[in-house]
Design brief:
Rossmann fold; alpha/beta
């Protein structure tokens, strides 16, 4: 890590840990109890050596047994008190660990719900999964145990130092002299450990992403026979993770070992100096034992602090990453006045939501993902309510970009998109998405029943609504052929169903919401001809009097569209109905002809065989 990165480290740590500590302090009642138990444990840690000194000087040196019974009773009470306080301390710490972990994940997931589509477009799934799982667990564990152990150790060291100085000022100074040396050593190792831990976390996220890709892409891997290449890439990634982890552990081990050496040197010096004081009758044997016990007890919390500092340095990387996720701001947000009227994403004010008619106007729209790669430039298009519009063109022509802009997954760089004559930014994101029905090329089903998957389109839909939506697209007979009907499980990601069946369910999910604007994004490109025919028949009725945008790969699916837009490099090069564009014998005619003869050739080849 470069020096300038270290110069900014303190700011990162302060801002990161401030957010984490704020979460911890949501448990004020439990923290207060924890503080009381910690103070009690520390007090008893001071009392135990005092009891031992009394026993040595009175029972062994003076041979005075008159106070033996009270001494035994007090010792038993102290032991019982110590046991109770440790139990209570652990109980509170476990509660704090659980609540901190819960709150970190809650806040992270809450942020994920608000983030714009662009975030998920750019961020690997493995990165997010690592933040929500391993980083959240690691951080909550370190906070509940590491930070609390450090506080206990810190207060123990203060109490012991005061007790040592009061018992024998000269011997107490030995401990005070050692502290700056330990601080310097800790500062030296702190940055080195953090550097390696950050590198380790980076490699861990990459490995997690590879795990996820390997699982989701298992069929592709098998079909392309690239198991060896995948294993080699994964082996190299885990090798980097292993090396970074070993370097971090070695630095932590060197750190702890060096502190142990310093601690035992201090104990040895104290024993020698104290023994001389006993021989010179400056202190008693019991006092020497007390000082040695305090010295050892002093370095025990010091070693705890060194170990927990290493843990905190390790957790710093986790803290930075999960706080980064929690504090990520969505790129697309509503204005304050819009939120006041329509509500926020998670707290809507549906009473203020007006009904939508479905008129859409793209007014001088320009858009780019990168400044030097303009996708749309002063694009204009007017779609009247109830019209069906098909977007066709080669890859990169701007079809999906238009759909993403209409859905407000992205916003125009310049220009205005109007819905019913009003800039769609003047209404809330949630209002817009409530009006849209969206059927993706790759349908995403949730691991629940068919009925619940359809109901996600309208959470308050009745069973009858679900059945009617299924009947509208011809899915009902298939569902009823299953043993459990609508209560049949679809499996993880819908893996118990065919692609066509999954697509039909996602289509029913969109229809049950009764959207005023329906978007079909390559909705029929992955399904078989029979399923495609079912959807085409259903859409003739469903799309009536409803604005629809159809991104089509198969041109045969859009011949009945009210308007076909031929795009090239983000510009409209042809516009009209299917018959009008065929009659022009232009770009659309050539595209349709090539696809038609290509399909015809495949059929002829199949018949010849």
């Amino acid at each position: 890590m470069m020096q300038d990165e270290f110069d900014g480290l303190k700011k990162v740590q302060l801002s990161t840990w401030k957010r984490v500590i704020d979460i911890v302090f949501q448990n004020k009642k439990h923290l207060f109890r924890l503080g009381l138990f910690m103070a009690g444990i520390t007090t008893l840690d001071i009392i135990f050596p005092q009891l031992n000194r009394y026993a040595i000087d009175v029972f062994f040196i003076e041979r005075n047994m008159s106070t033996l019974i009270p001494f035994i009773v007090i010792s038993i009470l102290v032991a019982l008190g110590f046991g109770f306080l440790v139990w209570a301390f652990i109980k509170q710490a476990i509660y704090i660990e659980a609540t901190v972990s819960h709150e970190l994940r809650r806040q992270a997931f809450h942020t994920l719900q608000k983030l714009s589509f662009s975030y998920f477009d750019k961020t690997p799934q493995g990165w997010v999964m690592a933040r929500m799982t391993s980083d959240a667990s690691r951080l909550s564990e370190v906070i509940s145990w590491g930070l609390l152990d450090m506080l206990w150790a810190f207060f123990s060291m203060i109490f012991i130092t005061v007790a040592l100085l009061l018992t024998n000022f000269r011997l107490g100074l030995i401990i005070v002299t050692i502290i700056p040396i330990m601080v310097i050593v800790s500062q030296f190792f702190r940055k080195k450990i953090l550097t390696q831990e950050r590198l380790s976390k980076k490699h861990n996220s990459h490995v997690t992403a590879q795990f996820s890709e390997a699982f989701l892409g298992a069929k592709t891997t098998k079909s392309l026979v690239i198991e060896t290449e995948n294993f080699t890439d994964f082996y190299q990634s885990t090798g980097k993770l292993k090396r970074a982890g070993i370097r971090s552990i070695m630095l932590s081990a060197m750190y702890t070992s060096l502190l142990l050496i310093i601690a035992y040197v201090a104990v040895s010096v104290t024993m020698v100096t104290g023994s001389i004081a006993v021989l010179d009758q400056i202190i008693t044997v019991g006092t020497l034992q007390l000082i040695i016990a305090y010295t050892i007890n002093f370095f025990e919390p010091m070693l705890v602090i060194s170990e927990k500092i290493a843990d905190l340095q390790n957790a710093q990387a986790s803290a930075e990453r999960i706080v980064e996720l929690i504090e990520t701001k969505p790129e697309i947000t509503d204005r304050k006045d819009v939120e006041d009227t329509y509500g926020t994403l998670l707290e809507t004010k549906k009473d203020a939501w007006e009904l939508i008619q479905g008129d859409v106007h793209f007014n001088n729209i320009s858009f780019y993902y990168k400044e030097d790669e303009i996708i749309l430039d002063q694009f204009n298009l007017t779609v009247e309510a109830g019209q069906s519009v098909a977007l066709v063109g080669h890859t990169g022509s701007g079809k999906t970009t238009l759909i993403n802009l209409l859905s407000r997954f992205y916003e125009p760089t310049r220009g205005v998109i109007e819905i019913d004559g009003k800039d769609y930014k003047d209404r809330s994101l949630q209002w817009l998405h409530q009006q849209l029905g969206y059927v993706l090329q790759s349908p995403q089903l949730f691991s629940t029943t068919i009925k619940e998957n359809i109901r996600y389109g309208k959470l308050d839909a009745t069973d009858e609504d679900v059945i009617q939506a299924s009947k509208a697209i011809g899915l009902h007979p298939f569902i009823m052929s299953l043993e459990k009907g609508y209560d049949s499980e679809v499996g993880e990601g819908g893996n118990l169903l065919s692609i066509g069946q999954k697509q039909l369910i996602s289509f029913a999910r969109a229809l049950i919401a009764n959207p005023r604007i329906l978007i079909l994004d390559e909705a029929t490109s992955s399904i078989d001809s029979e399923s495609e025919l079912m959807i085409q028949e259903a859409t003739k009725t469903v799309l009536k009097n409803r604005t629809s945008f159809i991104v089509a790969h198969r041109l045969s699916t859009i011949v009945e569209a009210d308007m076909i837009i031929m795009l090239e490099m983000g510009k409209i090069i042809e516009k009209g109905t299917h018959q009008e564009l065929i009659a022009k014998k232009g770009h659309y005619y050539q595209l349709y002809k090539n696809q038609f003869f290509s399909q015809k050739g495949l059929i002829e080849d199949w018949l010849e065989k």
